């Protein structure tokens, strides 16, 4: 069997609009982001999700709760789905983070973490998903670093290659997580 994962990046935040890399700061949805979150719920009302898993950072939780205000499907917050912690650079310009991204694949940002650490956290999340949600379809609402981790872990794309391209938004990326864990995960 398998777990079908539909991945959505949290809706647009005021920081996104200002060109700020929020990192582990909470962030909040902008007016556009609130509309996007409502549209997410409208786009997926009967998609058969057993659960929604969201980063515990405010902007992801706000996206999930706005999309599914009645709590159906149930929303689970998970710290392992957090954005990369840019440490001393949380809240700094996106351009600064983008220019340093390749340097922090394995070396943590000062006072923060590396992208490889995000992969490790995402791997642990996927392990629990594979063992506890076999045969289910779930929605994951998280951040760009988590999407890169999913692409790396589930498609085998090198992390170095993923981090070279700027994050691109598109609704509903689909992944299949085989439950023959960990053999199916690189």
Explain this structure.
The chain has helices spanning 14-18, 31-43, 58-67, 94-100, 115-132, 144-155, 159-164; strands at residues 2-9, 20-21, 51-55, 75-78, 92-93, 137-142, 173-178. The mean pLDDT is 92. It has 186 residues and is of the alpha/beta class. It has seven helices and seven strands, in the order E-H-E-H-E-H-E-E-H-H-E-H-H-E. Helix 2 (31-43) packs across helix 3 (58-67) and helix 5 (115-132) crosses helix 6. The chain is globular. Helix 3 (58-67) links the parallel strand 3 (51-55) and strand 4 (75-78). Strands 4-3-6-1-7 form a five-stranded mixed beta sheet. Helix content is 38%, strand content 18%.
Strand content: 15-25%
Number of helices: 7
Low-pLDDT runs of 5+ residues are: none
Mean pLDDT: 92
- Major beta sheet, specifics? 5 strands, mixed
CA gyration radius, whole angstroms = 16 Å
Globally, the shape reads globular
Helix content class: 25-40%
Which structural class fits the helix and strand makeup?
alpha/beta
Helix/strand order, N-terminal first: EHEHEHEEHHEHHE
Biggest β-sheet: strands ordered side by side in the sheet: 4-3-6-1-7
Distance between the termini: 18 Å
How do the strands and helices of this protein lay out in sequence?
Blueprint: E1 2-9, H1 14-18, E2 20-21, H2 31-43, E3 51-55, H3 58-67, E4 75-78, E5 92-93, H4 94-100, H5 115-132, E6 137-142, H6 144-155, H7 159-164, E7 173-178
Parallel strand pairs: 1-6, 3-4, 3-6
Antiparallel strand pairs: 1-7, 2-5
Helix pairs in contact: 2-3, 5-6
């Amino acid at each position: 069997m398998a777990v079908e994962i539909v991945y959505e990046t949290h809706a647009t935040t005021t920081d996104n609009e200002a060109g700020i890399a929020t990192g582990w700061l909470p962030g909040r949805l902008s007016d556009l982001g609130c509309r996007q979150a409502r549209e997410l719920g409208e786009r997926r009302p009967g998609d058969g999700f057993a659960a929604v898993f969201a980063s515990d950072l405010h902007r992801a939780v706000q996206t999930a709760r706005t999309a599914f205000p009645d709590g159906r499907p149930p929303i689970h917050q998970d710290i392992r789905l957090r954005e990369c912690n840019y440490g001393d650079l949380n809240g700094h310009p996106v351009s600064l983070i983008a220019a340093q991204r390749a340097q922090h694949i394995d070396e943590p940002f000062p006072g923060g973490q590396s992208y490889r650490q995000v992969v490790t956290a995402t791997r642990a999340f996927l392990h629990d998903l594979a063992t506890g949600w076999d045969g289910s379809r779930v929605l994951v609402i998280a951040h760009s670093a988590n999407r890169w981790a999913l692409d790396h872990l589930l498609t085998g794309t090198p992390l170095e290659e993923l981090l070279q391209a700027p994050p691109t938004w598109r609704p509903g990326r689909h992944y299949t997580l085989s439950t023959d864990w960990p053999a199916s995960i690189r």
